TrEMBL record:
Homodimer. It comes from the Bacteria. Its EC number is 3.1.3.89. Residues 12-128 form the HD/PDEase domain. SMART domains: HDc. GO terms for cellular component: cytoplasm. It is an enzyme of class 3 (hydrolase). This is 5'-deoxynucleotidase. It catalyses: a 2'-deoxyribonucleoside 5'-phosphate + H2O = a 2'-deoxyribonucleoside + phosphate. Keywords: Hydrolase, Metal-binding. SUPFAM superfamilies: HD-domain/PDEase-like. Its cofactor is Co(2+); Mn(2+). The lineage of its organism: Bacteria, Pseudomonadati, Pseudomonadota, Gammaproteobacteria, Cellvibrionales.
Length: 156
């Protein structure tokens, strides 16, 4: 599924598989660099599962109006995926719920990086996705303000 974020300097849009891969790799790197101890296995599993709901429900735009109501459709999609024969992650729904609720330090780190990556992609594409969607600086700051409180080292 194609996302709204542009990658490769604005050359093309990122797809969900790329986003999940980028997120998992960034989570692993941040977990190794930050002073806190993280369950890296749990973190990577959550990163890989975090957008599975969007496969069935569609891309949820960070600045979109239907963001709150999308949760129910996304959870239903994750449940269907979790029940699929051959699913290699037996606690997929639990992982997805954990990251949605932000109920662990791993989920907190995941949320930070999930916001940082598209932010950085927008910087390298000169704000292309923000411009195309009429997003202003105050909206970006509002949606990313929690990052410094969650992971202070990010601002250092």
């Amino acid at each position: 599924m194609e996302r709204r974020t542009y990658i490769r300097g604005g050359e093309r849009r990122e797809n969900s598989a790329e986003h999940s891969w980028h997120l998992a790799m960034a989570c692993r790197t941040f977990a190794e660099v930050l002073a806190d101890e993280f369950d890296v296995d749990q973190l990577i599993k959550m990163a890989l599962a975090h957008d599975l709901g969007e496969i069935g429900a569609g891309d949820t735009f960070l600045y979109g109006e239907g963001r709150d109501s999308a949760h129910i459709e996304e959870r239903t999609s994750v449940l269907r995926t979790a029940e699929f024969p051959g699913n290699a992650i037996p606690n997929m729904l639990q992982l997805w719920d954990e990251q949605e609720a932000g109920s662990s330090k791993e989920a907190g780190l995941l949320k930070v990086i999930d916001r940082l990556l598209p932010f950085l992609h927008n910087i390298t594409s000169e704000g292309r996705a923000w411009q195309e969607n009429g997003i202003c600086k105050s909206q970006v700051l509002k949606m990313h303000g929690f990052i410094v409180q969650e992971i202070p080292e990010v601002s250092a």
